[in-house]
Inverse folding.
């Protein structure tokens, strides 16, 4: 069975992707900060009959990242690493003039530094896999200038650039930065609580990710909604 690590897997896109992959026979290591929500997610994923290891913790902690990779090694290796855990930097989002620098540092630490740290930890196992794949969950805010999304967007732009460089440096891997589009998630609700229409359900976006895994196109940046639409 292929083995994947998914961060931020207790809810939203991470949980939806975990359930879909388990339905396709993947064994999974799941991460999130909230232990209770992660247990619930892992129980739902395990109903598909695959092996699921749930490790609550903070991806900014090096020891936690090492534990995630060690758990995957016990399952057989790392074929897929999905960096989905994210921090906004401020809740709700604010203009750059009011953005707390501590919040910006947190967004960069979670969205960029921890993601790279986990890749570094898993890289030997990814290289050993016949289908080693890294998915960095990006954002349209990484490429477009939206008011109040500056700090979060900057962190996602940095993550997507790391993914692009990793693809050049590790040609034996597939490295995809994937923009999931607007989604109705707790993260989006925290970012812009006044918005009534938050976007697609995470489960409706997941087929785009599954298409990438099935077709294995070249490393690069992809938009999940376009993939779902067959483009």
């Amino acid at each position: 069975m292929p083995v994947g690590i998914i961060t931020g897997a207790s809810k939203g896109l991470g949980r939806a992707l975990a359930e879909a992959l388990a339905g396709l026979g993947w064994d999974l290591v799941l991460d999130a900060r909230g232990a209770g929500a992660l247990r619930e997610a892992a129980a739902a994923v395990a109903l598909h009959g695959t092996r699921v290891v749930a490790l609550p913790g903070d991806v900014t902690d090096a020891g936690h990242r090492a534990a995630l990779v060690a758990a995957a090694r016990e399952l057989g290796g790392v074929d897929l690493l999905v960096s989905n855990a994210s921090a906004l930097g401020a809740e709700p989002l604010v203009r750059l003039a009011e953005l707390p620098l501590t919040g910006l540092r947190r967004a960069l630490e979670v969205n960029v530094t921890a993601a790279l740290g986990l890749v570094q930890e898993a890289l030997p196992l990814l290289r050993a896999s016949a289908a080693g794949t890294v998915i960095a969950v990006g954002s349209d805010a990484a490429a477009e200038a939206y008011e109040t999304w500056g700090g979060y967007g900057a962190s996602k732009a940095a993550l997507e650039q790391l993914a692009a460089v990793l693809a050049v440096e590790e040609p034996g891997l597939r490295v995809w930065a994937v923009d999931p589009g607007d989604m109705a998630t707790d993260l989006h609700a925290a970012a812009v609580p006044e918005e009534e229409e938050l976007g697609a359900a995470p489960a409706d976006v997941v087929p785009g990710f599954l298409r990438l895994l099935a077709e294995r196109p070249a490393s690069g940046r992809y938009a999940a909604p376009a993939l779902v639409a067959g483009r």
Remarks:
- The helical segments are 12-23, 35-46, 62-75, 101-128, 150-169, 186-191, 202-215, 224-228.
- The longest strand covers residues 27-32.
- The two ends are 29 Å apart (CA to CA).
- The chain is about 50% helix and 15% strand.
